[in-house]
Amino acid sequence: MSEARKNFLEGARAEVPLLIGVFPFGMIYGALAINAGLSTTAAQLMSSILFAGSSQFVTAQLTHDVTPAAVIILTIAVVNVRHMLYSASLAPHLKDLSIKWKILLSYLLTDEAYAPSIINYEKEGIHTYKHWFLFGAGFSLWFIWQISTAVGILLVGFLTNNDILKAIPLDFALPLTFIAMVVPVLKNRAMIASALSAGLVAVLAFSLPYKLGLILAALTGIIIGTLLEEKKSSGSTL
């Protein structure tokens, strides 16, 4: 087995536990998108082209609530700021790749692909085919996301009308998935404080209109994490 294929398969295998939570989340997005007024084609293309689960989920909900476009754009921008941090974290490991590889991996970079990849990179160090690990993790997630979205779209009537299925809290799969991704990478006080503060604010600000609590929570986590990292760098004690 070639090193490229070996790393690809290792990335795909590392992604499997997270896919268990991703699949029902994709189904929920597909059903929600249709109920929000999107066409079947638009709902599926959003998964294929945009490929950003949390942003798709928020967009569908805000569209359903007839939210002003400016608020939708601002919310998506803030929610996706974390991808800039992911890219900065991965850059030292992928800096020697061609521009074609960087474009492909940037498209496939998601929370679920980043978490196992950065853990693998920090453990294994630098080697020639390490980008195939991220490719394997990202592609397996992309593939399952397309299928789960399609299933949700096709079963939208059943999902919304079946009392037994409605009683199952499938929407809780998303926070469980994020918890599974975040916990292994919380390695210092700044990271832990950032995650806890963002989570607390998200709960307290849940009732704000237009999902503005997400923006407030994200900004809080970024500010807290940045301040603590600056104190650590300057040698200050907490």
Describe this structure in words.
By secondary structure, the chain is mainly α. It has helices at 3-35, 40-50, 53-64, 69-79, 82-94, 99-108, 111-124, 131-154, 156-161, 163-166, 173-182, 189-204, 212-234. It has two domains: 3-169, no CATH class; 186-238, no CATH class. Helix 1 packs antiparallel against helix 7 and helix 1 (3-35) runs parallel beside helix 8.
Structural class: mainly alpha
Count the domains: 2
**Number of helical regions:** 13
Please mark out the parts with pLDDT under 50 across 5 or more consecutive residues, or reply none: none
Task: Give the total of beta strands.
Answer: 0
Largest sheet: none
Average pLDDT confidence is 83
Features:
238 residues, 13 helices, globular
Short description:
With 238 residues, this protein is an all-alpha fold. It folds into two domains: 3-169, no CATH class; 186-238, no CATH class.
How are the SSEs ordered, and which strands pair?
Layout lengths: L2 H33 L4 H11 L2 H12 L4 H11 L2 H13 L4 H10 L2 H14 L6 H24 L1 H6 L1 H4 L6 H10 L6 H16 L7 H23 L4
